[in-house]
Write a structure and sequence with these properties.
The complex is a heterodimer of chains A (787) and B (232).
Chain A: H1 2-15, H2 17-45, E1 57-66, E2 69-73, H3 80-87, E3 91-97, E4 101-107, E5 110-119, H4 123-126, E6 131-133, E7 145-149, H5 150-157, E8 166-169, E9 173-181, E10 194-197, H6 198-204, E11 219-224, H7 230-238, H8 240-244, E12 250-256, E13 265-267, E14 270-273, H9 275-303, H10 305-317, H11 322-359, H12 370-395, H13 400-404, H14 412-448, E15 458-462, H15 470-483, E16 486-492, E17 502-503, E18 506-507, E19 519-524, H16 528-532, E20 536-539, E21 551-555, H17 556-562, E22 571-574, E23 577-585, E24 600-604, E25 611-616, H18 622-636, E26 645-646, H19 647-652, H20 656-690, H21 692-700, H22 705-739, H23 751-777, H24 780-784
Chain B: E1 2-12, E2 17-28, E3 33-37, H1 44-51, E4 59-64, E5 67-68, H2 74-84, E6 85-89, H3 100-110, H4 115-128, H5 144-156, E7 162-166, H6 174-189, E8 193-197, H7 201-204, E9 209-214, E10 217-223, H8 225-231
Parallel strand pairs in B: 3-8, 3-9, 6-7, 7-8
Antiparallel strand pairs in B: 1-2, 1-4, 4-5, 9-10
Classes of the chains: A alpha+beta (787), B alpha/beta (232).
Chain lengths: 787, 232
């Protein structure tokens, strides 16, 4: 029986090649889209779960109340890890880890500026990176020890054995290679090229030494013996900083390592989600696309029922039960879904490199993993059964006597279900169009919103090596300005596009001493405002002609918080030092362009900060100017790579999440719409089949092709109109919810709805007309003479 | 009114060619009632379809009131058909989803007749066909005879010069069949030219002239004296 069913299924698929092609094509695109999205979801879901004890590992976050709100960040005092380990029962390991920092590593003539992490020996107990060389028990115990990643070792040493070799850090510190570990996977939040000891961190940063509880400058990871200790440990760690230092503002808490990547947004000190929301959207999108492909299959199969009704009648008449028939039709659909799966694989393999490039990730299909094959097989079975269920039940329900007598299937009930399915597809398509339009509108709005400085023709260079010397910096500045390639050169303690460095130390006359106001601070060189292209609303920039050692510039937000009527000239204190406000700078974006700007204070310093800013003269050729600047820096600072950044490119990185959402929605939305069109084409085929006789009569009575085209298309337009009516409120709710996450957002206009409406109508019309046109042009007598 | 010369029509499939019409010559005068008879597959329906511009022959000439129709393009054929021709089919070919009134109104819509005028014309023909009390019904609610009356009404509502009937009584019992034939005779008496394909010599006896076809040829022509005399 099975063999017979199989051969009937194969022959039937072969006989109706057109339908099979539409079906297989739709299902293959649906399956490929679904698999690609699922691969991506699995990749993101797998973040930080590579370590054996990830379930009992926690990253310590810190709540601080400031400006009336609770801020949560993963910065802790350096001494927290040791205290947690010594004082909290149930803690297996605890370790401090510095933030990633790019430093120069040199072996013989090989120099690389790569990412370093400073940490302690417990690091390897918490994160079991595979140790390829060296003794795991002693790693990072010596102050001058360094552990290299596999690719770092390869870059520095080639095929040489690196263990026990001496290398240089920043051309000053000698380090001994203790071991080599496997590279961190791409979906791991802890990424590094080499690891250094905590003692080395304290040597380079003497301020971090000692029992300091008031400064949060590193991450702390805690591993519990098991999760039954969690509640107690979390309560205990909560009060630790305040207990150690009176008057401090930190309340640390444990956040699961497995949630670090996906649940990184906090409100009121509690985790409220993060990237997980985007992932949920993609997960839903994956199944919606598959469902749409299944709906297609249902539509096309039931549409073919007219042709297969006789087969059903004969089979029933000679003794086949309804169950047998259901089995046969389900088998056909599973077979089709398996064939589609093969094509989906081909599509997937073609799309994967492009997709990886687009998102900057490394998705791979693990052909050797049994889980992969199980999921795949289940997916194919699920698709086949879902897609085949309705046609199987519908086709097997035909009354054999009626179909054999040659009744024409009026198909009213099945037709209305098919109409419902098409409406469902187009609701989804119209919703997607609305969402995609709004995402692009929002992205455009934010991109075109003034950011408070001119990010074009602005170059940022990390200050390292000789550039730290104020004398050499001045020489460089003079040369660049004299050459005419640069019209401004300055420096700052932080990059212009980055946040960080803040404190509660700013006070002014009339401030409530109980109120904690978090203010960001920057130490800058002369001409910072001019170089960056910022705008002063009052006062002046730091400049060489003034004694600016106690001068500060504040931003508009801080001026507003202070509530001083005329802030320029006002005397305030900063960390108990009296300072004078000399200028107010227009708010500029240094954190998220979607949120309101935070308070900021700038002081002048003679010590060259961490980032140098160079404004390229607008009348100069950019590439020539950049070459000149690079050459000059290279001559002055030959041991370090120049490592220039274009500020506009760095700023673009702030839109990465939204761009990703836009790109993925765009592509997969396009696929979903394409599959929906195939479904519509299927329904058009069916309707044309159903109405062949009526159309012929109309033609005989004088209807021309245009009349027929209007008649046939009107029905579909009605369906698409209904779909739009349902999609509008639905789309509104979705985009409204999405937009509510942004301080700066567009108002929802008519445009996305108009685009969805027109585009869906146009797509439907084009699709249906392929078939309608054929019917309208057909000779009417062909349909009438075989009555 | 109609002058057909050397008409040839061949049906081709992948394997065989069938000649349906093989050099047909036929003249029909205005106001004539012509029956076409012959065995199954002799080409009579094909001839009727060609005359109704529903099918295209391979070669020959078909002049209707001095216009060569075979040179017309699709749009012109469609226009000519809706202006000058009416059709009655064996299986009525009414549209199930439309009421009697709407079915009859349809050709007027395609002829772009204004709504008020359409209403008047449809009511007039409904009255003449004696189906006034059925105008709101759907075709399935009518008997076969009534359905064919509706089909005839629909064919006549545009006042065509030529009515083409393809076995109009084929699906009817004899009393309903006679009714329809009488209707066609009345029509003919008012000056409408009728060409009818039939198997039934009884039906053919209502016409002025009977043409016999076989294998795509006209093999004989017979003047129906009784009917002609009656006409005189």
């Amino acid at each position: 029986m099975f063999k017979l069913n199989l051969s009937i299924a194969l022959r039937s698929l072969w006989k109706h090649k057109g339908y099979t092609l539409i079906n297989v094509g739709g299902l293959a695109i649906g399956l490929a889209s679904c698999m690609l999205l699922l691969l991506y979801v699995a990749y993101e879901w797998g973040y930080d779960k590579q370590f054996s004890n990830y379930k009992t590992t926690y990253v310590t976050y810190n709540n601080q109340t400031a400006n009336g709100t609770i801020l949560s960040f993963n910065a802790t005092p350096g001494v927290l890890a040791e205290a947690v380990k010594a004082e909290i029962p149930g803690v297996e390991h605890a370790v401090h880890v510095s933030y990633p920092d790019e430093r120069l590593l040199t072996y013989n003539r090989n120099s690389f500026k790569k990412t370093a992490l400073f940490t302690g020996p417990d690091f390897f107990r918490i994160f079991d990176f595979k140790v390829l060389k060296g003794n795991p028990a002693v790693l990072l115990k010596n102050p001058d020890g360094v552990v290299l990643s596999q690719s770092m070792a390869k870059a520095l040493f080639g095929n040489e054995d690196p263990v026990n070799k001496t290398i240089k850090l920043d051309n000053t510190e000698n380090l001994k290679v203790e071991g080599v570990v496997a590279d961190a996977p791409k979906n791991c939040s802890i990424s590094f090229d080499y690891l250094l000891s905590w003692t080395m961190f304290e040597k380079i940063n003497p301020w971090a030494k000692g029992n300091i509880w008031g400064s949060n400058f590193c991450m702390t990871f805690v591993q519990l013996k098991d999760n039954s200790f969690f509640d107690k440990a979390n309560t205990q760690i909560h009060g630790m900083i305040k207990a150690k230092e009176k008057g401090s503002n930190g309340e640390p808490f444990l956040h699961p390592l497995s949630k670090w990547h996906l649940y990184s947004t906090f409100e009121g000190g509690k985790s409220v989600g993060g990237k997980i929301q985007q992932l949920q959207i993609f997960f839903m999108l994956a199944f919606c696309i598959l469902l749409i492909a299944c709906v297609n299959f249902m539509n096309l199969s039931t549409a073919r029922s007219e042709k297969r009704s006789k087969e059903v009648g004969v089979r029933k008449a000679i003794g086949s039960s309804r169950k047998d028939l259901i089995r046969q039709f389900l088998m056909e659909s599973v077979l089709l879904s398996l064939i589609s799966m093969v094509f989906a694989f081909i599509l997937l393999e073609i799309a994967l490199p492009y997709f990886n490039g687009l998102l900057g990730i490394a998705l791979v299909i693990e052909y050797s993993s049994w889980q992969f094959w199980t999921v795949l097989l289940l997916l194919a079975l699920f698709t086949g059964i879902i897609a085949g269920s309705y046609p199987a039940f519908y086709l097997s329900s035909f009354d054999p006597i009626k179909v054999l007598k040659g009744f024409t299937l009026s198909g009213n009930s099945s037709l209305s279900i098919r109409k419902f399915l098409v409406v469902f597809q187009f609701v989804f398509a119209a919703c997607l169009i609305i969402c995609i339009t709004v995402i692009y509108q929002q992205l455009n709005y934010i991109k075109n919103k003034p950011i408070g400085y001119d990010k074009n023709n602005l170059i940022e260079i990390p200050v390292q090596g000789n550039l730290k010397d104020p004398g050499k910096f001045q020489v460089l500045k003079d040369e660049l300005l004299k050459s005419g390639y640069a019209s401004g050169v300055s420096y700052s303690s932080r990059t212009i596009t980055g946040g960080g460095n803040n404190g509660y130390g700013v006070s002014w006359p009339g401030k409530n001493p109980e109120e904690k106001i978090l203010v960001n601070y920057r130490n800058t060189g002369y001409d910072m405002i001019k170089t960056a292209g910022m705008e002063l609303t009052a006062g002046r920039d730091f400049s060489i002609g003034h004694a600016d050692s106690t001068s500060v510039i504040i931003n508009e937000t801080l001026a507003k918080i202070m509530g001083i009527k005329d802030p320029v000239g006002a005397k305030i204190t900063w960390d108990d030092t009296p300072v004078t406000i000399i200028g107010v700078v227009k708010d500029y974006v240094f954190e998220s362009p979607y949120q309101k700007t935070s308070a900021l204070i700038m002081s002048h310093t003679k010590y060259i900060g961490s980032a140098m800013l160079i404004r390229v003269s607008p009348d100069q050729n950019l590439s020539k100017a950049v070459q000149f600047i690079e050459d000059k820096i290279k001559t002055l600072n030959p041991e370090y790579p120049v490592d220039k950044h274009f500020v506009n490119e760095d700023f673009e990185m702030k839109f990465q999440n939204e761009k990703l959402l836009g790109t993925i929605s765009n592509w997969f939305g396009g696929f979903a719409i394409f599959i929906s069109c195939l479904g519509l084409l299927g329904l058009a085929l069916y309707m044309a089949e159903q109405r062949k006789r009526e159309i012929s009569i109309r033609k005989v009575l004088g209807a021309d092709s245009l009349n027929i085209l209007v008649l046939l298309n009107a029905d579909f337009i009605k369906l698409v109109l209904i779909a739009n009516l349902i999609a509008f409120p639905l789309g509104y709710v979705i985009v409204n919810k999405w937009l509510s996450g942004y301080d700066f957002r567009i108002g929802i206009s008519v445009l996305p709805f108009a685009v969805a409406f027109l585009l869906s109508i146009l797509i439907a019309l084009l699709t249906v007309s392929i078939q309608s046109f054929k019917v309208a042009k057909a000779n009417p007598i062909d349909a009438l003479k075989y009555e | 009114m109609i002058r057909i010369e050397n008409l040839e029509k061949v049906y081709k499939t992948e394997e065989i060619e069938t000649t349906a019409l093989n050099g047909i010559n036929l003249h029909v005068k205005e106001g004539e009632f012509v029956s076409i008879m012959g065995p199954s597959g002799c080409g009579k329906s094909t001839l009727l379809n060609v005359m109704g511009l529903l099918d295209k022959p391979e070669s020959g000439s078909y002049r209707f009131m001095e216009t060569e129709l075979l040179k017309l393009n699709d749009r012109e054929r469609s226009n000519f058909r809706k202006k000058h021709m009416g059709f009655v089919f064996q299986n009525f070919n009414l549209i199930d989803e439309l009421t009697v009134f709407e079915n009859i109104e349809l050709p007027l819509i395609y002829n772009k007749i204004p709504a008020a005028e359409r209403k008047r014309l449809v009511n007039e023909i409904i009255e003449r066909m004696n189906i006034v009390n059925r105008s709101g019904h759907f075709p399935q609610q009518l008997s076969g005879g009534q359905q064919q009356r509706v089909a005839v009404a629909r064919a006549l509502v545009t006042k065509p010069k030529l009515v083409l009937a393809d076995e109009p009584t084929g699906n009817l019992d004899s009393s309903h069949g006679n009714e329809v034939m009488e209707l066609l005779c009345e029509l003919n008496e008012t000056g409408t030219t009728i060409v009818m394909v039939t198997h039934s010599s009884h039906d053919a006896s209502f016409s002025n002239r009977i043409i016999n076809l076989k294998d795509g040829h006209v093999i004989s022509e017979k003047i129906n004296k009784g009917r002609t005399e009656e006409l005189i």
